[in-house]
Amino acid sequence: MKATISKLxxxxxxxxxxxxxxxxxxxxxxxxxISENRQEATRTEETIGNTADLVAMGDSAYxxxxxxxxxxxxxxxxxEMGTSSVLFYNLGNAYYRQGNLGKALVNYERALKLDPTxxxxxxxxxxxxxxxxxxxxxxxxxxxxxxxxxxxxxxxDTWAWISVLYFSLYLEGTATYLFSSAVAVKKVSFFxxxxxx
Length: 197
Hints:
- By secondary structure, the protein is mainly alpha-helical.
- 84% of the residues lie in helices and 0% in strands.
- It has eight helices and no strands.
- The mean pLDDT is 79.
């Protein structure tokens, strides 16, 4: 029994060490990404002037009810500078005004993926969803909604570490069951392995 407890403690310490190592690797990657972003920012300063002009031209076209020109300006600005939540939001508005609800919906969702705090995009997304008439009226089953809420509680990396921990506990219980000679230890390790797996 002492050997099993010591093996369990060793497994937990090893898991803790692995998580610390992984977080240190993530911090190093984040530092390098920050320096790359700074370099990219200096390179794109030259194109920002042209892109700002395109965005301003798109905004004025939108205000003048020329939604096709606004769409073209926002799209060209995205080609030159790259995507942003504001550009996707503006493009979604231009598509909505043209009556293209599907493209408006997609662009609002893209804006929210880039900036989940964009309340204007969220409000417009809900408004456009309400406008679409061919939506399904059936809601998802309650088990599906419970499952989705459980899955969304943590990031994928966290679920991966939890599964590695449970798998190591399962292997520990299996090894204890196979190599132990005491009946009580075998019973505990068998039921422990069944609970984990």
